[in-house]
Design goal:
about 210 residues, 2 domains, 4-stranded mixed beta sheet, 1 helix, about 40% strand
Length: about 210
Amino acid sequence: MMEPKKGKFVTPGEVLCTEEEFLPTRSVFTENGNVYSAMCGNVETRDGKVLVSNSKAEVDKIGRGMLVLGEVVSEVGKVLFVKVDDVKAGSKLYAALSDGKIITSSHSGPRDRGGPHGPVGKICKEGDVILAKVDEVGDDIYTLGLYGPETGVVYARCSECGGDMRYDGAERVLVCTKCKHKEHSRVSALYGKPNEIKSLLAKALTQPQ
């Protein structure tokens, strides 16, 4: 299990680590060797101990129509599963209470031109960071969609060597900075523009459509 991310917003029952990795302290509980959050708040690790502190930000849930940022963690058949990030917009924190899924058959085919950037080989792959819109909020998962030029892959690593990929506007393709391997994906117009992505998310999250 990975070390809990310091400052990450968590909800009750969310697993943080194992008892072997960190000693449980405040606002957590243990079960079967795992340490879980006992409240909504931010993860803190100090001197080998883990705790959850009160979040100073006003907390709301990510809802339908909002833009979200996440990492593709797996692909099963025609479904991509995405780990959705929490997002802070001003003094408000929008919490991702579940992961997301993208049904690839809804966004693939010869007429899907990859947003503004040309042909698509695969929409995206495991490890890609994407911007997507929340279509539906289910009991245990978000259904995500890719609509408009801003949605799609915003950061990718090469599937051949793991190097950073850059976007080649002339060829409309992602190119590895190390081995020059090329990949066709649905690339966001904001690929490689973290400040613009942050600004867009802050605006979009407070003005859902």
